[in-house]
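Box 4.2: Ligand-aware structure prediction
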Amino acid sequence: MAEALEVFRGIGKLVSLASAAARGGRHVTDADLAAIENAALVSENGKIKWVGPEAKLPPDYRKKRAKDLKGRVVIPGLVEPHTHLIFAGNRSAEFEMRNQGVGYQKIAEAGGGILATVRATRQASEKQLAAIGQKRVDRFVRQGVTTIEVKSGYGLSLDEELKMLRAAKSLKRARIVPTFLGAHAKPAEFETADTYLDYLIETALPKVKKEKLATRVDAFVEKGYFSADSTRRYFLAAKKLGFGGSIHADQLTLSGGARLAIELGAQSADHLVQLGSEEIAMLAKSDVTCVLLPSADLYMDCAYPKAKELMAAGARVALSTDFNPGTSPSQDVALVGVLARVRMKMTLAETLVAYTVGASHALGLAKQIGSLEKGKACDFAVLTGSIDELFLDVGQMPIHTTYSSGREI
Ligand SMILES: [Zn+2]
C-alpha cells in the first residue's frame, strides 16, 4: 500500500512550539515563538515525518510534488480542551435574566440553567445532535482548531448520555476527544446527588467504557451540584475503569475542586476563578493542567483566574472557550485569547502555548499533538498574516487554511 506522503514547502515561518513543549508548557517565554524561517514540513500517514529549513529538505522529499504555502506562517493546530458543543435549544432568555440581576443558582433552582438544556437535548435525536454539532465543529476548524474536546452532560440518563456521546463520535474534520460528563447536574428523577452518582458508577460508566464512547470523565464540583467528597468516590470508580479526566473546579465558589483534581491526579482542573495562594502553589507543583475559560468569566461577569500568579509559580495553563449554551454561548477563539491578554495579562506566547501545548496536556495528548515535531500529528493552521495578528481582533482569527493529519480540512 502506498504511504500517504504530503510535502509542504514555501513556509515563510514555522512556529513549532517545540521548546515550550519540551518544558511541558510551563515557564513560557517570548523565545518560544521563535520560528524556523523558510521551512518545509513532511507528513506521512498523518504524522510529521520531517520538519526543518527547506534548504535542508532531504532529496527524497525534494523530488515529491509539494504543496506551496506561498511564504505564509504556520502554527500548530489549536486545541479546544473544554467544550459542551453538543446541545439542543438555547438559553437566550436566561442570558437576559442574568444580566438583569438574577443569579445563576437562582436560575437553576427555577428550572433554568443546565436542566433547561437537558430538556431540549433529550428531545433531539442523535442525528439532529450530530448535525448541530458538526456545524459547530466546522466553526472551530475555520478558526484554526484541529482538536476539540466534547463533553456529554445534557442527557443525564444512560440512554440520553450515550446518545450524546454517539453523536460526538460521528463528528468529522477535527480530532474529537469525547468526555463523559454524566456528573454535570443531578437530574430530577433522582433524590440526591449521591444516589445519582451510584447510578452512574454502577450503570453508566461500565457501558460507556464497553462501547468505547469516551476515555475521560468530568464532574461539576460546585455548591448545589456535586460535593468534593461525592466526586472523589465517583472519580475513583472511573479511574478504576481506566478513565482519565477533568474537574469543573472552583468556578463560582472555592469548593475544593482544584485540591481534589490534584489529589486524584486528574488531567486538568477547569475554571479556577476562586483560587487562593495555597491552591496556586499546589497546582504549580502538580501535573494538573489549569484550564482557564475567560469567556465564561466575561459572560458570568465575574473575576478572572489569576493566570499570571499560576504561571509565575510554574503551573501549566491551557485556554478554551467552554462553549456551552448557558455560561459561555460563544465559539470565539479570538475572544478567549483577547481576554487572556487584556484581562489576565498573558503574553502572546503564553496565550498561544496555552491554546496548543497546554491544552494538549489537559487532554492527556501531549505526546501526539500541541507542537509541530517529528512523530506528532501533522495538525497545523496556516495564517493569513503575521503571528502578531493572533488573538487580536475579536471574532476574527487570521486563519488561511487548517490541516489535520496532513490534509486540508
Ligand atoms: Zn464547562
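In the box above, the bound molecule is zinc ion. The radius of gyration is 21 Å.
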